[in-house]
# Entry
Amino acid sequence: MQEKLFQVVCPNCKQAFFIKRDTVINHEIDDDSVLLLENRSLFVHTCNHCRTTIPLDYPVLYYFPKERIYIGYHLKGEGSLDSKSYETDSIEQFVEYVMMVRDGVMIDAILELKQGLLQGYTYDGMEANQLFFRNDGQLICLPKRDA
Ligand SMILES: [Zn+2]
# Structure
């Protein structure tokens, strides 16, 4: 957990204020972080003054200690020999990767498929050992492989 203060100016009422966010999230310690990530509340703030929803974009690193996997959005993991680090270019991609690791998906295999079959598709969740990938209205379903 590494808290940082951000200054935000509301685009609607121009009120400026500071908000606190964790920039390093540990999956084992910060239990509710996956949920906040999945519903995107980590990346929005409601203006205290006029209640406008303000999107937040900041560097963040998500760490899975058991899997020794770092997922970073404009923030790098401490690359060591026994850990793996993935960098993402957007908040959507960051959330997608974290969801995949949380669900025990073999992320390397999926990233390979994203060059072909799964190009343009985003991980949409798992149900009964089937993985779902979505692209607009299209859905692809794959059996989950065990590591
Ligand atoms: Zn406001």
The longest strand covers residues 3-9. The pocket of zinc ion is lined by residues 10, 12-13, 15, 47, 49-50, 52 (CB under 6 Å). The helical segments are 33-38, 91-102, 107-113.
